[in-house]
Amino acid sequence: MSQNQVSGVNPVNESGIFNLENNLPKNRASLSLERNFGKFDASVRANYFGTTFDERSQREEIEARTLIDLDFSYQASETVQLILGALNVFDTYPNEVETRASQGMPFPRRTPIGYSGGQVYFKAIYKL
């Protein structure tokens, strides 16, 4: 990547360029399946994130992961829909990075899958 210098200095350092080019997966895919059962709906979604690299000096590879999300909804009335869902139902995390574990943060600082694990949510939608 070439840069236009500002006052004789490159605006983005080598590590920053590496992050821009390698902290997002080159391969990303999603597959969703939905099914309607009258007033009930169900969906399952698989989210695939390809490999990335941690920006630390060792530039450890962050392995590809697939996260599974589920949600179930109920159409309570013409105006009210209730939804119960779960993101990352198998509580998947990125692989641990040795150079960060000593700092109390065993996961890569930048990862597209995050490091908060699985989450459950409830949502109510009211249409006027």
- Overall geometry comes to elongated
Instruction: Return Rg in Å.
Output: 20 Å
Task: Please identify the structural class as seen in this structure.
Answer: mainly beta
- Give the mean pLDDT: 87
Q: What are the segments in which pLDDT stays under 50 over at least 5 consecutive residues? A: none
N- to C-terminal separation? 51 Å
Give the H and E element order.
HEEEEEEHE
- What share of the residues lie within helices? 10-25%
Structure description:
- By secondary structure, this protein is mainly β.
- It is 10% helix and 40% strand.
- It has 2 helices and 7 strands, in the order H-E-E-E-E-E-E-H-E.
- It has helices at 14-22, 98-101; strands at residues 28-37, 40-49, 52-53, 61-62, 65-75, 80-87, 119-126.
- The strands form 2 sheets. It has a 5-stranded antiparallel beta sheet, with no helix packed on it. It has a two-stranded antiparallel ribbon with strand order 3-4.
Summary keywords:
128 residues, mainly beta, five-stranded antiparallel beta sheet, two-stranded antiparallel ribbon
